[in-house]
Amino acid sequence: MRADRLVSLVLLLRQRGRLTADTLARELGVSTRTVLRDIEALSTAGVPVYAERGRHGGFALLPGFRTELTGLNHDEALALLTAGSGRGEQAFGLGSALASAMRKVVDALPDSHRATASDAARRILVEPETDLLSRRLVTDEVPDTTMIEVRRAVLAGHKLRIRYAATGGTPQWRTVDPIGLVTVRDRGYLLATRSGADRTYRLSRMSAAEELPEAAQRPNQVDLDRIWRERAARFLSDGHITVLVRVNPARREDLLDTALAVRAEEPETDGRLRLELTFQDSRHAEWALWQLGTDVEALAPQSLRISLRDRAIAIAARYQDSS
Hints:
Layout: H1 2-16, H2 21-28, H3 32-44, E1 49-52, E2 58-61, H4 74-84, H5 95-108, H6 114-122, H7 144-156, E3 158-164, E4 172-184, E5 187-194, E6 197-202, E7 206-215, H8 224-236, E8 241-247, H9 252-258, E9 261-267, E10 273-279, H10 282-290, E11 296-300, H11 302-319
Helix pairs in contact: 1-5, 2-3, 4-5, 4-6
């Protein structure tokens, strides 16, 4: 761990020039005292780092110093830098590791196109925090200590003890056999088995976790994509409602943001889209379609059409005396 931090410290000084101890501590996630000890260790090891005193002082490397890292071509580096710029950088608690890796990527570039690749990456934005309608996208938050334990158990193949709260329930401890981690639309899930039965746990509903020394009961090889598709299919067929609608294409994304899944989609002759969607239940479907007003029409089931009609009548009656 300390070796990685020392490398990151050197790369920060190489790429950004003179930095104060406070700035280095903030970037590396350690105390200022730790930074000073690391600086002393680098000097002892022969790395030409020196201190500049005064108001604008800090630590810097002698000009021309370069670490020996394998180089990447421009497009390879651009791909990594762009991927690292998205909101997925916090997936599964690996944000700080990704930041360190990105510094190494930049440093590994040849001098001839280091600046151009970094500038190109700044001109590509992946998954910003808000969309064009200024809606803030919500990302699941999981305590770092919890995420570290979950990730260790998954990668080591050990049993995992989690304190988990199901929807509407109170947190309870349970022991599971972890299979893998999946992130979908900034929501993280743990795929596992419990007493031999398939289980899928939302990471944000875990308040604590503990990696156990016992080996997990799971296959040596895993196809997470196939497992996720199978579990998603079971989830969508378990007590949910399927709805057929006609929607204005301009509001398609708004509708899809609220649905659990899209089962079918085809254009109609009048320019509208016909969609078959899955919702949590009838109440969820009614709420989602009501948000879009006349831009969407429920075609089936008939019970949903009746519910929307009754709601519209009630709203009209409430305001009929307004003039």
